[in-house]
Amino acid sequence: MLSILLAVAAQTSSGRLPPAVALPPPVGEEQTVLASVNAVLSSFSAGDSATMLRWVYPDGRVTATGTRASSKGLRQESWAQFAARVTPGAGFEETISDPAIEIDGDAAMVWAPFVVRVGGKVSNCGVDHFDLVRENGTWKVMNLTFSSRIDGCPAQ
């Protein structure tokens, strides 16, 4: 027991959390929430700001934080401002994995590691946190907050 406590203490003192336990695949309403998030990510990859704005609240926020060279510190903008920077054909692709999805009534959140590739090469990675609101039966993203780094990203 002592060795387990020492191992946990060593990991905690390093600033890293222990590895997360994989979650089961989303089912039911979780799939619907995730479908909205995936639609937003697909619009990023397509460079389609008009489609993206159909899945978000334009006055919601996109907040970036992290160590990525081009976005050190904290950067915030509305979805409308973010959409103005979305460029078709830029070779941008963001994928998420192992999403954690929580739903309470008409509020939901998705927390998932992501990897961004530009022209097929890993550009950066981190964790996305989407918060969503269901309005008239449709889940829309209110806010996206994400960390971003260039070190320690998955190669594939």
TrEMBL record:
Q: InterPro entries given for it?
A: NTF2-like_dom_sf (IPR032710), SnoaL-like (IPR037401)
Superkingdom to which the source organism belongs: Bacteria
Which residue numbers delimit the SnoaL-like domain? Answer: 58-143
Pfam (any one): SnoaL_4
From the Swiss-Prot or TrEMBL record, give the protein name.
SnoaL-like domain-containing protein
Instruction: State the organism of origin.
Output: Sphingomonas limnosediminicola
